[in-house]
Amino acid sequence: MKYIVGIGGMTNGGKTTLTNNLLKVLPNCCVIHQDDFFKPQDQIAVGEDGFKQWDVLESLDMEAMLSTVQAWMSSPRKFARAHGVSVRLDASDTHILILEGFLLYSYKPLVDLYSRRYFLTVPYEECKWRRSKRSYAVPDPPGLFDGHVWPMYQKYKREMEANGVEVVYLDGMKSREELFHQVLEDIQNSLLNRS
According to its UniProt record, in which pathway does this protein act (predicted)? Predict the structure, then answer.
């Protein structure tokens, strides 16, 4: 059985932490990080807001990401081995792919591939504080969060909801352990119901 999990949501919401924790315990599990598909910096447009448009779908090579997902779908065992994932033969031939990123549910060709979609949220002030504590290869210029990052998050979240994309909302203010156990239990129950 092939099972694709989306761990989406806002910047600095806890997506990568949750993904990494799930990766440690789920059998035959691979991960694809959307951040690995950013286009080169010289291909990122400057918007009317004066900022490089990193937080828009066009900043990502989504066709390459889709091709990577399709490679997993065509042969999850081969994909796992090629990415250094040990394949457990006792895992009832279940293969899990986690897609992790901030705009997972905005690219139509991917939306219907998910078995389960999660969406992490945190309040504005918490998100801004977490973002200020992170160091990025390309540092945030002053005003980026309020002038671009937060408005783009709100825009894409509204579009996702308007398009009827069903997600399980997760409170990113919960402890890492609580979120991990909530999602792990949900995935395990979903897998049991499919077998």
Answer: Cofactor biosynthesis; NAD(+) biosynthesis
